[in-house]
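Researcher: Structure prediction, please.
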Amino acid sequence: MGARFDAIVVGAGQAGPPLAVRLANAGRKVALVERNLFGGTCVNTGCIPTKTLVASARAAHVARTAAEYGVDIGGRVAVDMRKVKARKDGVVEVSRQGVERWLRGTDNVDVIKGHARFTGPKKLDVGGAELEAERIFLNVGGRPSAPPIGGLAEVPYLTSSTMMDVDFLPEHLVVIGGSYIGLEFAQMYRRFGAEVTVVEMSPRIIPREDPEVSDALREVLEREGVTIHTGARCISVRKDGDGVALGVDCARALPAIKGSHLLVAAGRRPNTHDLGLDAAGIETDAQGFIPVDDRLEASVPGVYVLGDANRRGAFTHTAYNDYQIVAANLCEGADRRVSDRITAYALYVDPPLGRAGMAEAEVRESGRPALVATMPMSRVGRAFERGETAGLMKALVDARTKRILGAAILGIEGDEVIHVLINVMNAGLPYTAIQSAMPIHPTVAELLPVLLERLRPLE
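Model: Predicted structure follows.
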């Protein structure tokens, strides 16, 4: 007979700790099991460290362009990568320790370090100790994965996780993957001073986005000196002295791309391979993700999956919302569903991209009559005053209900301004609710009513 709990939470990422604390405060006896670092991907190798590095890279960029604003700093801008990494490490450590202190300081929560494996539908083994609970919550996250690339196994390469250990400036960083993770690192290291080349298999970067958004971001990156190759499906790598050489030979053959370091940023996989899921009868798909229903319950009753491993979202905020859904349903008797939430995310290049709802291709595929409006950021006074006019705003609206279907804001403060639209969408209000408000001047958000005045039928 093992130790019995009301609930066991496996993983101390973004959903696990608040759920454990919520259940404990409701009087449940809870075990939280973590085998590695508290805080999960976001705290240790994701959002927090990368955005800290983005801030350092922006500081370097602002210093280099200061003369355009009448500020003479004199001399060459030097970036000390060891100090950049030390600053990042300090921010991460504070966050990680905060999560652990919170958990260990909460009554009714037993924090257990170790690797959890199922031995039955309601049982887990952690380092030889057996734990039992009627409800088990998996918040195990994911890790970087690499596509099948010829020669990759024979060359050293970096991932989004191992990039966190870099305390030097690569001479030439070659990035395989022109999507969200790859582009953040590409711009970041270009601003630190490295030569950067991005190789993307799709015909354009961030291929999930609308073409004009993709094109505008490519223009931003190329203006800063990032070299981008798209449509590169036939990729191979080999050693080249102390560096690597990337071969690209598809419809358009390119000379070998030689770099000092290679970053593979082309996918992630869930951490479900070593949980003993078979022993519990928990189903997975071909990629290892665990299918869940609309309330995040897996194929085995009483087992819930939150965060990256459930394929219902791969962001910190979707994981936290998973916690909110499960907690409300179990503790409050609510009936919250994953399908009720609106897709929203941001890409933290500079300027950032804020996204909500459907892209244009999805709207067209739905067959509904729709309206569309676009406007360049050069029309935004705040952007003009700051000298940062790159990008655009775009909105899609249901022609019958007048509800906003989707939006993209690539531009200064786009990751914040998008929340104006997200809130209206979540409230189920028509877009006219924004037009009847009085925005503050001078802001980026004040141009949203102007954008919506431009709505025209989507042809």
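Model: Residues 81-104 form the longest helix (24 residues).
Researcher: Thanks, that helps.
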